[in-house]
Amino acid sequence: FAGVRQAQWLTKTKLVEGLPPAVQDIVDNPAHGLQEFEERVKHAVSHARLWDTTEVAPRREQYCPVLFENLIHICRLMTGKYPSLSKRMLARNCRIAATWERESILLQVRGLSGVLMNSMTPIPPVASKEEILSTKEHVLETFYPIAPTIDLQEVNVYKELNDTGFKDGYPYSHPHTLFFLESANVRTNRFRPEQLRAKMLMFAFGNALAKAKALHGNDPKVLEEPVVVQSVGTDGQLFQFMVFQLNTTDLVSNDGVKNLVWIDSDQNLYEKAQCVPEVKKKVVTKPAGISGFQPDTFKKFLALYLHGTV
């Protein structure tokens, strides 16, 4: 059952399909030179999928993190053009804790939230004040007679914890983008794309809520300055992109302003990696290599990285 619809109810969030205009404009603007990186990205995919191993073919748990590091390295090449990109920091194995009340239920997001890119400055709001106010009209989906918390783990809460995972005074204090690598080799151990998107939403929300409470205190309110946190999920081939905007910490009732999330789902970076040539009757029928490369998927990855800077 666990999916985006359930996560929307838990986080009081309205879903918008696709990327927000602020990010799509970066993708579409040729001035940023995103198309210049196509050959580098093809090389990065080939390195992760074909070359970075002594085995016949690398396993997902190996090539997925290697591909991520390669793509981040390409993104960092933009720092010469946009020096403020140097005011970023990648943190691994970050712990997050956020607590909120929804109807009469006390909820928590706790645990490791993937690889987190932090920034010295926050991402500006992506929805206008008018768009935020219009969410009052949005009706959240209910699951009656099923409880929306049906598959959540029940624990005894001794302390209502809200913790960004960073000490006061940390210069890179604003969460920018979460990266989730679903790199388990066995399919049953990996999150399905819908489950991954739900996880991405819950942790983007958790990071935004913890930050909002650190900035503005625990009193439920509509935020004057919404908190934006992005999320990228991948299994080393298929990518999920998400931009979350926390508009309110008043989450108890279904009324009033809702939070917003934009999701661009199931974007392939490439169709297939042929690690070993296919040979029939001593003739190579399929050479080794990457096929079906989709440059727009990397452009979206890079646009999320640049968002808040350009």
TrEMBL record:
Subcellular location: Mitochondrion
One Gene Ontology term from the biological process aspect of the record: translation
Single GO MF annotation: structural constituent of ribosome
Main localization, broad class: mitochondrion
An annotated GO cellular component: ribosome
Pfam families: PDCD9 (PF07147)
UniProt keyword annotations, A-Z: Mitochondrion, Ribonucleoprotein, Ribosomal protein, Transit peptide
InterPro entries according to UniProt: mtLSU_mL37, Ribosomal_mL37/mL65
Domain of life according to the entry: Eukaryota
Keyword Transmembrane helix: no
Bilayer-crossing regions: none
Signal peptide: none
Family: Belongs to the mitochondrion-specific ribosomal protein mL37 family.
Name of the protein: Large ribosomal subunit protein mL37
Organism: Origma solitaria
